Every structure is written in C-alpha cells, then in structure tokens.
C-alpha cells in the first residue's frame, strides 16, 4: 500500500513538471510599442542621438556660475522670463564683503585726507607760531646784546666796575640768545617749506594702494549679484533662497552633482539640435555642402527638417547615456549642429532628446 502511494505521488510530480515545461515553453507575445520607431528617410542615412538646445552662434546654452560663494538670499527672476544684458538674476549673501568694503573705503579716505594735509602745508597758523617764536628769539638776542654792550662800556670806563663773573654771564647769555634765534629761524624756514617731498610721495603711494584695495573689494562685492551676460530667456534656476552657491554651481539633489545656478537661452524662435555621431560612422558623413537631416520627436510621428550649421571638429567621449565622464567602454562621438524653426502646434524644449537621421542631398 505504501509503495502505491509513493508511485502516485511520483506520477503527479512528473505530470506537473511536464505541464510547467509546456507552459513556460510557449513564447510570450511581444508588447506593442508605445510609439512607432523613427523610420530612416534616407537610403543610407546615419542615425544619431540629438539634444535640443537654444541656438547660439557658438557654444551651447549659456551656463552661469557665480564667481563667489555664499548663501542665496534673493532670486530676482523666474524661469521662462525674458531678461536683458546686465539684469540682476540672483543675489548671494554679501554681509562680510560689504563690511570689508566699508572698512577699506574709510582707510582710503583717511589716507587721502592725510595726503591733502601734507600737500596743504604749511598751515597758516603753524607758520604764524614759528614767526612769533623767531621774533621772540630776536628780541631775546637784542636784550642780551644790550646787557653785554652796557657791561663792555662800563669795563672800558672802569675795569673794576664790573666783575669778571658778571661779564662772562652776560657774554654767555648773548651767545645763548643768538643760538635760540638761529634755531627759531631754521624752525620757521622748515615750517614755511611745508611737507618733505619724500613724506608726500610715501603718502601718495599709501593712498593709491588703499584706493586700489577699496576698488578691488568693491568690484568683488558687485560679483555677489549674478547678472545676465546677454539678452535671452531664463531656462533653468538651480538654487533656492537659502541654498549654497559657489563657482562650482549649486548642488542638485536629483543628479547628486553640481549644476549651473542659472541656464539661459537665446530669445530667438530658432532652436538648435546637437547630434552626436558615433566615431565608427564619421567616415560615412556626407560633405558639409551635401549634408541634410531630419529630426523625429520621440513619442510622436512628427518629423522636422533640419538646417546644417556646423561641425564641431573635436571627437569627445560620449557621456549622455549615464551622465558620467567615463563609461566602461570608451565611446566617442562627433558633435554636428543643426537648427530649425518649431512648426506651429509642436512643443519642443531645450534639453529634450530626439532621434536624428543624417543623409545626403
């Protein structure tokens, strides 16, 4: 009885295994594509990935990075807004730099004031004091000379009328008064001559250095306001108020990398498509005068003819697939730039990935 039960269980297991093998061996029907893939409109067309960007005579979109670092305190524009060259876009906290500018401005003004004081010498009041001191010394010399002359006349009349000690004191007083007059005269001449030219030159250099330091700090202070480098449209604003911005950009939590604080595009209706042609397909590119292309918008059947602009003659690593600067395989591509006018009713935006076929006229 036990053997019969085991035999039945084994038979059911074999039948289940055969049934499972049959079910999983049946091929599954492929899902219908969400949209039809872009057909090649040329007999020998070359396929390339393309990225829409604002049309520039050279370069790509206008990526704006601040030249200083700090917290963003104000954002003065909105995405999609038309701006003109020099228009403020956002402001970075400039508290420390503004205080530095105020300090250096005061130092430059103080140095300039001291320079003007040196140039204005002699001061009339100081010159009057020096002249008065010279007159006082001259009067003292006259007094001492009179005393010496009187004693000399007395000695000439009667040598015993004046003691030698009194005569020597009068003589010494006359010499001291003469020395005082010479000192006061030289002091007057020194005051009248004004500041020494070397002091003036030294102060000029100090005033110039402090003025340049102030000008440099003021120029750096202006960098805390990020301004539009040209006319255009604000396409993207990276930071928010309170976030940190630096010359590397602002941190993007989505890409976990640093991105430009502001991305601008031209205000023209013309857009550009930057195609990346694989390096193994470069020899098949037609000559520039015969080159033409069509762009297919993914998810639709819309195709737009493209006008050839230029080839960027530098083959660079392909980073679009993983957004990494180095992939496992060294794939290199040649950028080819086209331009187009968006047809009425078709919405396309810079940064959108499109399919492009490049052919020959």
Q: Which outline best applies?
A: elongated
How helical, in percent, are the residues? Answer: 25-40%
CATH topology of the domain at 46-55 and 268-360, what is it called?
Elongation Factor Tu (Ef-tu), domain 3
CATH architecture of the domain at 46-55 and 268-360: Beta Barrel
Give the rounded overall mean pLDDT: 86
Structure description:
The protein is an alpha+beta fold and 361 residues long. Among the domains are: 103 residues, Efflux pump adaptor protein, beta barrel domain (Elongation Factor Tu (Ef-tu), domain 3, Beta Barrel), CATH 2.40.30; 64 residues, OB fold (Dihydrolipoamide Acetyltransferase, E2P); 73 residues, Helix Hairpins, CATH 1.10.287. It is built from five helices and 17 strands. The strands form three sheets. It has a six-stranded antiparallel barrel with strand order 1-12-16-14-13-17. The protein has a six-stranded antiparallel β-sheet with strand order 6-5-3-8-9-10, with no helix packed on it. A four-stranded antiparallel β-sheet has the order 2-11-7-4, with no helix packed on it. The relative contact order is 0.19. The mean pLDDT is 86.
